[in-house]
Design brief:
Blueprint (H helix, E strand, L loop, with lengths): L9 H5 L12 H24 L5 E4 L14 E7 L2 H11 L5 H6 L9 E7 L2 E8 L4 H16 L7 H11 L6 E4 L2 E5 L5 H14 L3 E8 H6 L1 H14 L1 H7 L10 H52 L7 H4 L25 H18 L9 H6 L5 H9 L12 E4 L8 E7 L4 E6 L2 E6 L3 E3 L26
Antiparallel strand pairs: 1-2, 2-3, 3-4, 4-7, 5-6, 5-7, 8-9, 8-12, 9-10, 10-11
Helix pairs in contact: 2-9, 5-6, 5-7, 6-10
Length: 470
């Protein structure tokens, strides 16, 4: 053989004694056995691949762990489905499995049919096993056996006959049973016997076992040829594995459609989740944009508040005056053609021209109030001309100010302001008379400059002369 030999010895069997099963001190010899068994398994994988059976190889833990219930009392080497096939079935098997069941038995080896090599303190065996928890494979086997019950007549079902023929073709040392008890020779297998063993396995929660067991003494005595014998025995069990283990080519429970439904459901759930995530991302982006706009607005407000107030300029002061109503730059619709509209059109043109002429004519100043018009003739021509010729003197007229009347019956009279009415007029005392006059008719009388104060003629006294020290 091209692969390293298994070559079991008494020391290998003793590593799995009951008193050593819970101790990690013996993990080293168990690890050596595991490494040799995995190296031997490579030859088995190659021979199964020649038969068209693709399997992965896994070894059980050589130290106490949760997967072996903290007892390393045997060493398993599993030959089972590849990773892609296991993942496909695990999605279906995990749907009905509770969290407590997963914690109680985290090992995945009970959920798939497998070929295996098992080494314990008392024997070494090769087998095909399927646990009741491997629901897909068990249901597939039951569907094959149920076809025999539905068949009437002398001829058995082809599916059941195919399985019993494969069992009868095994060497006479091979047997089958539920767990490790009540095993029956494979040469005596019938569909009813297989169904009964399957029922016992389900009741006892133990795997349906088909294989060959070699006692410790026999294995040690024939260690030179045992490696090849064990390899041949696993290859002999390959047809049983092919007939019982579910695959797309060996589907008697229409699981293919269920898997397609599961894939479609997963794809739909994934699409809904992606749509929900995309909607959430869009909402978050809009919220961030709104937050940024609000932050920019607050920043602009703070900047404007920190800047000094803008002073009006000539450009901004008269900006409103140059609006639509401030000038005559607005275009006017042109008159219609002379041939259109007849006399009404010409009358409209004349009216429009007259309106434009009135608008272009210089505006006269508004007439003075009637009261001023009545007072104006009473003013003497010379006084009016003199008042018009003299420029108004500036100043602020207040209560108590001396004012001169510029026009009217009291022109050139000087009086004193006794009261301001706040409406542009003032009550002025003109000697014994008191009358109300407009502020425009008054001018402030500014007295002459005050005479400068005369400086004193007294001389300032001279400072005393300090005495000389003796």
């Amino acid at each position: 053989m091209s692969h390293p030999p298994l070559h079991l010895t008494a020391r290998d069997f003793d590593a799995y004694a009951a008193e050593k099963a819970t101790s990690k001190a013996y993990s080293r010899p168990r690890l050596e056995v595991k490494q040799r068994a995995l190296a031997w398994a490579r030859g088995v994988v190659a021979r199964l691949a020649e038969l068209g059976i693709s399997v992965d190889v896994h070894g059980s833990d050589e130290h106490p762990s949760i997967r072996n219930k903290h007892r390393a009392d045997c060493q398993w080497v599993f030959f089972w489905r590849d990773q892609a096939a296991r993942d496909e079935l695990d999605r279906l098997l995990d749907r009905g499995r509770s969290m407590s069941e997963a914690i109680d038995d985290p090992s995945p080896f009970t959920r798939h049919a497998f070929l295996a090599l098992r080494l314990s303190e008392g024997d070494v065996e090769v087998c095909f096993a399927v646990h009741p928890d491997a629901k897909v494979d068990v249901d597939n086997l039951r569907a094959r056996l149920a076809a025999a019950e539905a068949t009437t007549g002398e001829h058995a079902s082809p599916l059941a006959s195919e399985l019993t023929s494969a069992l009868h073709a095994l060497p006479e040392q091979f047997s089958f049973g539920a767990g490790g008890a009540d095993r029956v020779a494979c040469s005596a297998a019938t569909p009813d016997a297989i169904a009964e063993m399957l029922r016992r396995a389900a009741d006892g929660q133990v795997p349906l076992w088909i294989g060959w067991s070699v006692a410790r003494e026999t294995a040690i005595e024939h260690a030179d040829i045992l490696d090849e014998q064990l390899e041949d025995a696993i290859v002999a069990l390959a047809p049983i594995y092919r007939l019982v283990a579910w695959s797309r080519e060996n589907d008697h429970i229409a699981l293919d459609r269920k898997l397609e439904g599961i894939e479609q459901e997963r794809a739909r759930a994934h699409a809904e989740l992606e749509a929900e995530n995309e909607r959430w991302r869009s909402e978050q982006a809009k919220a961030r944009e709104r937050s940024m706009e609000q932050a920019r607005a607050r920043g602009d407000e703070r900047v404007e508040a920190s800047l000094p107030a803008r002073r009006p300029t000539l450009a901004t002061l008269f900006k409103s005056a140059s609006g639509p109503g401030g000038g005559r730059s607005e275009a006017r619709p042109g008159p219609k053609h002379a041939g259109e509209g007849g006399a009404p059109a010409r009358r409209a043109q004349h009216a429009d021209a007259e309106q434009h002429a009135k608008a272009d004519a210089p505006q006269r100043p508004p007439a003075e109030p009637a009261q001023r018009a009545q007072r104006a003739p009473a003013v003497e021509p010379d006084a009016a001309a003199k008042a018009a010729a003299e420029p108004a003197k500036g100043g602020v007229i207040e209560k108590g100010s001396r004012v001169r009347v510029r026009r009217g019956p009291f022109g050139d009279k000087v009086g004193v302001v006794s009261e301001l009415d706040g409406r542009g007029g003032a009550r002025v005392l003109l000697g014994l008379l008191s009358t109300r006059l407009e502020l425009d008719d008054l001018e402030l009388v500014i007295d002459g400059k005050e005479r400068p104060a005369l400086s004193t003629s007294h001389r300032k006294p001279l400072a005393p002369t300090p005495r000389k020290a003796r």
